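If you are new to this repository, start here. Below is one unmodified record pulled from the training split, so you can see the exact layout before writing a loader.
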Amino acid sequence: MPTGGGKSICFQVPALAMDGICLVISPLIALMNDQADNLKKRGIPALTIHSGLKYAEVKKNLKNAAFGNYKFLYVSPERLETDLFKEYLPAIKPCLIAIDEAHCISQWGYDFRPSYLKIAMLRNELPNVPVIALTASATQKVQDDICEKLLFSTQQKRFKQSFERPNLSYSALVPQSKHHKIIEILQNVPGSSIVYCHSRKLTQQIAQLLEKNNISSAFYHAGLTPDERLTAQNKWIQNEVRVMVSTNAFGMGIDKPDVRTVIHFDMPDCLENYYQEAGRAGRDGKKSYAVLLHDAKTFSDLEEKIKIRYPDFDVLKKTYAHLMDFLQVAAGSGEGISFDFDLALFSNNFKVNMQLAESVLKVFAEEGLLETGEGAVKPSRLSFSVNRDELEEFEHSNPQWKALAQTLLRNYEGIFSNSVPIYESLLAKQLKIPLTQVKKGILVMQANGIVNYSPVKDSGQITLLVNRMYNDAFHINMQLLNERKRVFTRQLREITRYANEQTTCRSVLINQYFTDTAGKDCMVCDNCIKRRKKNSTSSGFGIIANEIRNILSPAPAHISILLKSLKNYPDDTVWETLNFLIAEKKIIREEGNVLRLVK
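And here is the target side for that same chain:
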């Protein structure tokens, strides 16, 4: 079902009609919390279990799920194999298992997560419990893979809504200036809006630009503290600010029906992501706009992603050897052992591109060679919260931290106005002081209000799941990896085709991608409007348009009277002309199908 189409109701309502608790598996903490909070507001007791909770909180929630009067338990897939969860599962006795964002289980999906593969074990533990899997965007291949991975029987039932959004007008534009185009769109289309960007830095820059143009805005990204994110989100939901400028970290589970525009400053990796994010506009059924901005550099950046995300065999083999040397693991040993790991230090020591190193670790995790903690791949973040004069005053009073402050300024561009990723281990190496001293200095600066510092939540660790392979025995399933690469490349080609297409209806392009069927032209996207404008120069179109104006000029008229007066013209041309005039606001369609001419 489309984004905002009511997928949650499909498991929430049945669960309320059943005895017992519904187990909901969801990939994002924000999504879990939003859904649980919405249930609680309606007087429906719900619990969550995720990495953001302490051990005591997790145990308490599991006890409540097993012995309390709760209807929903939201769990991240990583928690399913923990000893604590397995201990309480027999007592919890779920009446229904719901897998949200089910495309994450498919290696052919756009957001494959190995942890989702663990869900199948629930079918063995709870063989008689019904299972429902939900997603907003899955191609036929992904649907088949979801059913296979979740061990659905051949009698499984599939329910699909159309991918068409009749009230949503899609456009893809190549403006001379993306920044100016965003301002132009927001000045012409009133109402709430989301602007999506790839980088955290850009979200802040665009939000500042909008504020300078008297367009109230907030920015949102994963580098902000939970309180900062919640404050920005609430201001936008309550219409205290009009525009949310965000990375794709924003939107999941957010229920705001009156979003009039969703603008993509940067192009997503695939149509699945784009469809889901653009679909956050117009959930109330009113006319809304989804605008994708792009340029020539957009496509070269996407091509570069292929090389980074899917390294070749030699790169994987070389990086594996570097990783094992970094962890000081001898060949034939290491299985089951956890090691402290610092991605920045590893990349620096072995001169490996950090993005590439992160991709390689993900490949190794998908291959079952290792597991990584969040801190292994997610850096801390920091920004200065004072001006330069105030910083100089602090340095004068605290000379022992001056070198640290100046090194931060030299190493990280834009750190004065933006929250940027920092690597404490590299700072320690550069300053030739212990890592603990670097962290102490940053905490002192934070205590004095000099910086905003968000350290990683958990320690950076890697757990080896198999012994280190000997160099000549190193193996990776390259056939599977290359197939994923082909899928990803196809996804990039399809989003590129969508952006560059100048004639075909954009709704048709989306429908073809997901269902292999074209559907009907939406008549409201930029390509349909261009085609209608071109047709409007034809004599037949122009004559009918004049007839309509003449009929409605004296007074508004019911649509049936209009159609009766135009019965001598082809029906399809009459409707096309009428839809065009309505879309162009030459005619207004009022309640009761009464048409009024705009004079």
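Two things worth knowing about this chain: The mean pLDDT is 87. Residues 222 and 375 are 14 Å apart (CA to CA).
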